[in-house]
Design goal:
This protein is an alpha/beta fold and 267 residues long. Helices cover 43% and strands 14% of the residues. It has one domain: Rossmann fold (3-Layer(aba) Sandwich). A seven-stranded parallel sheet has the order 3-2-1-4-5-6-7, sandwiched between helices. The longest helix has 29 residues. 44% of the residues are buried. The mean pLDDT is 97. Bound molecules: nicotinamide-adenine-dinucleotide (NAD).
């Protein structure tokens, strides 16, 4: 097909139905923006009503449509119900970004973060959002994608799921490592249905995670020291990778997690 491999064609998501969890802020918002800017119909599921309202106003000001629903991904029946309702409403789901995630607090070289002080309640809460809800998102999306024989699932993992990270908590590294293997496992099952499952592993990017602590230069300094590009990432810098994995440009990529980390994992 002449022209079929032009960038206009292979990254074309015009009319695609895309769901982004945790899309009202940070990386999820960047994902929602790039998919909508390239023609996708985007639904953001997020717990933050104020953030959702702000997103809708922002998208409207740019002439982009956006659907939103307030939802706590920790509520698994509500999460899966929202995905099934979206499939019914739009008739299909082309891409799902399982992106919602939270910090587990500080790392093991702080009093709060050292192994003896990790509290079961915090551990369970982080597991529910960063792991169980990601699994539930993949599970619900896969039902529709199998039926339509195609789709793309993208999980936001972390460089902290690829190796130890001194600045982040135990539950965070455990859940992010777990989703990297969840991606592989779902990818091998869903491959025969034309469903690709991949992960993104960001390094430190300036968002609101952990109360936006990276905005404090003193906190940011040791993170930056681990990044060969010697700076924090900007959420906009995720857009290229999100569009790649959310479009047919990545049609032969599945079961992998791609770092986007300023070179951090190259050390
Ligand atoms: N920013 C980084 O440096 C970085 C690095 C690696 C991985 N990540 C991952 O990126 C993802 C997005 O984080 P971010 O940095 O954009 O943070 P962020 O706090 O800016 O955005 C997270 C969004 O998820 C939403 N959310 C949180 N808990 C939720 C819940 N229970 N139900 C529904 N929505 C919920 C928040 O309201 C927010 O809109 C997370 O999975 C995070 O672990 C971030």
């Amino acid at each position: 097909m002449p022209g079929a491999y032009n960038s206009n064609d292979i990254f074309d998501v015009n009319g695609d139905v895309v769901i982004v969890t945790g899309g009202a802020s940070g990386l999820g918002l960047s994902i929602a923006e790039v998919m909508a800017a390239n023609g996708a119909r985007v639904l953001i599921l997020d717990i933050d009503q104020g953030g959702l309202d702000a997103c809708q106003a922002k998208f409207q000001a740019s002439g982009l449509a956006l659907d939103v629903a307030k939802l706590d991904v920790a509520d698994i029946p509500a999460l899966q119900g929202a995905i099934h309702a979206a499939a019914e409403r739009y008739g299909r789901i082309d891409a799902v970004f399982a992106n919602a995630g939270i910090s587990a607090g500080s790392g093991p070289f702080t009093e709060f973060g050292e192994i003896a002080n990790v509290r079961e309640e915090n551990w369970n809460h982080v597991l529910q959002i960063n792991l169980t809800a990601v699994f539930a998102t993949i599970q619900a999306a896969s039902i529709h994608m199998k039926r339509q024989r195609g789709g793309r699932i993208v999980v936001t993992a972390s460089v902290a799921g690829l190796r130890a990270e001194r600045h982040v908590g135990y539950a965070y590294v455990a859940t992010k490592a777990a989703v990297v293997n969840l991606v592989r496992q779902a990818a091998i099952e869903l491959a025969e249905f034309g469903v690709c499952v991949n992960g993104i592993a960001p390094g430190p990017i300036l968002t609101n995670i952990a109360g936006g602590k990276l905005r404090d230069p003193v906190v940011a300094k040791p993170y930056i020291a681990n990044v060969p590009l010697a700076r924090l990432g900007d959420p906009d810098e995720l857009k290229g990778l999100a569009l790649l994995l959310g479009s047919r440009a990545s049609s032969f990529i599945t079961g992998t997690t791609i770092p986007i980390d300023g070179g951090m994992t190259a050390w």
